[in-house]
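Page 47, continued from p. 46.
Same chain as before, 359 aa.
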Amino acid sequence: MTFFERIPLLRLFLPLLAGIIAGKTWHTGIFTLFYIVACILLVYLLYSLFKKRDSEKLTYQTRFVEGLFITSALFISGNIFYYNYNELNNSNHFTKQPYNDRYVLVEVCEPPMVRKNAVKTILEVIAVKKGQEWVKTTGKVIQYFERESQSMCLKYGDRIVQQAHFTPVSPPLNPHEFNYRSYLADDNIFHQSYIRDGQWRKVGSGYGNNLFKLGYKARNYLQEKLASSGLEGDAYAVVLALILGVRDKLDADLLKSYSAAGTIHILCVSGLHVGIIFLLINYTLFFLDKKKWGKVIKALIIILCIWFYVLITGMAPSVQRAATMFTVIVVSKLFRRQSSIYNTLVLSASILIIITPGI
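Result:
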């Protein structure tokens, strides 16, 4: 048995991934993609007509054409997925409007992080004021507020009116420096801003996704419980990072110490955390295996608990990957399918790159 026969999904995954990488690297236009698709469909149509004329002689000799067509279709699909994911291609993106020196309506789309001199968060630009009207827009920016009492009280779902002072994220200055601009671009963030006290005004709260609000509320509750348990200082900060993925409490010197020791990865939530949750719940609910509909109920509880933990930790990519993989494993066991762990990994990766091709 060959390598691809043992992992058949890999044949479909590789051209899809190659298409996403090509779209990210070459920034292919959507009309160019449609032109390529039309050409491939025309070639395949001609091949099908030609094949019918003498099917017995050509079936074996030309079977690679069908594989080439499927590979091309997956490659172009990956290209289209990335094109649609990249918000700069959206006609409603705020950069398509003359936003400089204008007022914009923005929404806080992740819990703010309080730093030493500033409050950092991600904003969604909902609308740009054009004359007396508000034009609906999309697009995210990373913004730093001057640290003061009002900015430190900002929460997920708050809406703000401010003057637009957005600038493109700067590229790396040194050849081998970490490319922060590319890192943010993978999450559809291309602009940044710093705003002082008095240059913005909160106009609403309670917006945003209800599911995310539930996850952030649960995380804040757990933070309060950990704080009331007697933990403080570096111990409290490390526990928050280990369990909940909250790293804004970590001191800069402490981060340098972990980095110098080569153990900085310990402070990030990962698949290990999801695996522990899976094992604990699976072991605790063993009694459901012998009851009618017990396995279905058990599978649903495991999946819900895993994804609720993903919500609490802020949807970190590493946790999403692990949660998707364990979800596939739970579902396959429910239907009594003994699949290869490699196929499970490939299927999980395929789902994730289709949903978020940039990450």
